[in-house]
């Protein structure tokens, strides 16, 4: 026998009639088998319970098949497939809440481990697959609110830690968003979040790339979820991701225009100092809001925390510098500069004031500077490090690319 023949002979498979019986939930072919039911495996090491649970498009009306199979072969309850999934993972994924209860009840009937003192039911609830997902991770990802309720109430003391991607169940739910025709999914997503926050005594908030569930809520403009999370842990406003972005950075930069303002307000209501947090390039949420031309967010931050406008990034630029560079923000720059008189003379690391930058950006700014600002204003800006004044830039007497680097 050659090596390829040996490899073929080593592949596990399930007789077609048994596979079809498992799919259909037909117990009869399994009653008098000479081999153990735990030895009936597909190539991916799925047992007959995996096959059954994975082929039920709707929640089964009867739990008889699972009950009778586990009576004949109790080890199937915790037997994992090739991906490390036990039957509870599949029941959670497909929202089979009645089968989730059956599996938990079966586990509760098993004797408690005397050494650890942990019941078999809790051991099962805490078991992870190859990506370190528990059944709760899986249920949260598939927005199965009823399953989430069952799992969190069964083991409220356990803190569900991050999977291999750094995601906790709460982060997974907070990082999802459904709009329009998916309204029902969005309602279920919010129920998932509510069940986790309500039932878990110790909540883990972590997510991928150093984010938290609050970052995720802020990114999607979900001010309701942000508020609920902050009621549990107000300190999350100060947690930063791998790039130094706090939740308010996300709220200022990512959501649609209509969603950013309420989320920023919620964050500032819980912690006004959030407006002063800087990222790895020393940018505040105000800087980011300007780059995205989110003027309502800019106004909200300035009204709540007026002093934060003095903060500069790693290149010495305040928010007016950013507004000047934002080409489509020319009209807003004209309004903002009148409200931030002292900032229009502040120089960045290249010696440019916001007016130096504004002067370089085409016909409209040049007309505004020529007609609306007094000659004295331009003189008071002084010279940049290339010894250029605002007037020099207005007449085009400079190498533009050297004067105005991009944001």
Automatic annotation (TrEMBL):
Keyword ATP-binding: no
InterPro entries: Ankyrin_rpt (IPR002110)
Pfam families (UniProt xref): Ank, Ank_4
Cytoplasm found in the keyword field: no
Highest taxon above the source species: Eukaryota
Keywords for the protein's UniProt record, in alphabetical order: ANK repeat
Residue spans of the ANK repeats: 83-106, 209-241
Descriptive protein name: Ankyrin repeat family protein
Native source organism of the sequence: Populus tomentosa
